[in-house]
Amino acid sequence: MKRGKKYTEAAKLVDRMTQYDVAEAIDLVKKTAVAKFDETVETHIRLGVDGRHAEQQVRGAVVLPHGTGKTVRVLVFAKGDKVAEAEAAGADYVGGEELIPKIQNEGWFEFDVVVATPDMMGVVGRLGRVLGPKGLMPNPKAGTVTMDVTKAVNDIKAGKIEYRLDRSNIIHCPVGKASFTEEQLTDNFTTLMDAIIKAKPASAKGTYLKSVTLTTTMGPGIRVNTLKLG
User: Fold this and answer.
1) Which residues of 153-190 are buried (b: 16+ CB within 10 A; e: fewer)?
2) Which residues of the chain form beta strands (DSSP E)?
3) In whole angstroms, what is the distance from residue 195 CA to residue 209 CA?
4) How far apart are the C-alpha atoms of 13 and 33, rounded to whole Å?
5) Positive or negative, the Cα torsion across 105, 107, 111, 113?
6) pLDDT tens-digit readout, 108-141
7) What pLDDT is recorded for position 15?
8) What distance in Å separates the CA atoms of residue 140 and residue 147, rounded to the nearest whole number?
9) Average model confidence (pLDDT) across the chain
């Protein structure tokens, strides 16, 4: 894969064989963000678990203290007085049954997170085939199936992110923007890592944190010293 001149120059700053301390890694991630837009800073965490086993699934949600730097659009499935509650909390879209054909047939996906009250999961379940593959299906573990729609919407707008294993047993999460200060990125990264370490399944054997990498949207990967995280 041919890389651009900016990427090549940025990559020279990073020693691929070195595992950096968090402070060094975050300093480098800011230096290697050379795109013309405000790049997202992401972390990729490979875990020593087997997600094919239910008891080794690692999944949850955490509120990043400084948010993600992205405006998140929230869709709430609710009925009765919960509709007004969701609207008052700042949900971008609120509805019920009438949204099914709009999403299923018209391909409407102008939202980033879906919240549902438990009594609406029968309706939302019919969208499983379209929401599931996009990672948009509400889930109690992530706090997106709840009667407390005010808290759910507030948390998401404040910077709540969901973490979950992909098929390769890797978690991919944003931890902010390249324009964030080093302190903001460090706080967000540490908050996420603490949550993932606490979520370690009891049945996981051997090394839990196999590798942790920080990168920007267009930048090179920077390996973080996992021994300093646990």
Assistant:
1) bebbbebbbbbbbeeebebebbbbbbebeeebbbbbbe
2) 40-47, 59-63, 74-77, 93-95, 113-116, 160-164, 170-177, 209-216, 222-224
3) 13
4) 11
5) positive
6) 999 999 999 999 999 999 999 999 988 899 999 8
7) 76
8) 11
9) 91
